[in-house]
Amino acid sequence: MQKYLQKAITNQLTRASLAHFGQQLKPPVRVAITGAAGQIGYSLIFRVASGEMLGPNQPVILHLIDLPFAMTALNGVVMEIQDCAFPLVQGIVATDNQQVGFKDVNYALLVGAKPRGPGMERGDLLKDNGKIFTETGKYINDHASRDIKVVVVGNPCNTNCLILANQIKDIPKENFTAMTRLDHNRAQHQLADKLGVHTSDIRKIAIFGNHSPTMVPYIDQMTAKNHKATVDQQWVTQTFIPTVQQRGAEIIKARKLSSAASAGNAAMNHITTWVNGTAEGDYTSMAIPSDGSYGVPKGLIFSFPVTVKNGKYSIVQGLPISPFYQGLLDKTIKELVDERIAVDHLLK
């Protein structure tokens, strides 16, 4: 195994030189990104470094983690970060050693995961990734900051997060989440396009369930420009829901590669909202440990509509669930229960 590469690179710009931001800088925080040399990592790192995720007065120390074979490429990414001279980047750690990579980390975006290969059954993928996230969970528990916020991006992200969180003994389980913000964003665009409004005008939509083709895009409470909005039910069932559920496959068909820029963007959106909160009168989608709401078995990592305030999320309660939506919910619940059964040996 290649000896890990670690670089602690002090940004040459002094704090005084950052005065042009017009705001007093906060103490730096450490942000870990796994799979950092990959496509999603590459699309994400530079935006985090620019301050887009955590704000223009929040310096960051980047912890870039990847496998030994990727370290040469990751070193190239480090050189590019240096060449950007980001004022907010106060240091960089590039490593294939998870103990080093997660040391004192405050935010972790877990992008790295084993992709599904030709002919691979979903159960095999779950087991292979289970080994990865079991190990990562132990390193996070032993070395990360006690207030770390984690979003799992690597698929199958819901159950990868379940496995990861099961290894955590000393950090609150609610700090471990999986990403369905990409599905939420996809739904938001489809609805805005249908209604002829801007994406920012669409509010009160959500994704329930698994980040998979069983996900449930929920729009019964949707507003557009702060007014209740409806769309044709036939379009919802025949076009909208299948488009959101299958969007990833369509992108692969078109690009011959999986979603990268949009996935990185959604991971960043997930953390930004978790830190800054949801807008008044709106909610977002996060896959979080179920507390039994909406009949979802406790402990499943399940996407719910949530509001966020002061860094804490809360499930939106009391949304009406029609028989149509209940049928879809039952399918995604069953899929996640089956996934939990498939990895039960990793949860003991």
From TrEMBL:
Residues 29-175 form the Lactate/malate dehydrogenase N-terminal domain. It holds the Pfam family Ldh_1_C. It comes from the Eukaryota. It catalyses: (S)-malate + NAD(+) = oxaloacetate + NADH + H(+). The keyword Kinase does not apply. Keywords: NAD, Oxidoreductase, Tricarboxylic acid cycle. Its EC number is 1.1.1.37. One of its GO terms (biological process) is tricarboxylic acid cycle. Residues 180-339 form the Lactate/malate dehydrogenase C-terminal domain. It is an enzyme of class 1 (oxidoreductase). GO terms for molecular function: L-malate dehydrogenase (NAD+) activity. NCBIfam families: MalateDH-SF1, PRK05442.1. Belongs to the LDH/MDH superfamily. MDH type 2 family. This is Malate dehydrogenase. It comes from Paramecium octaurelia.
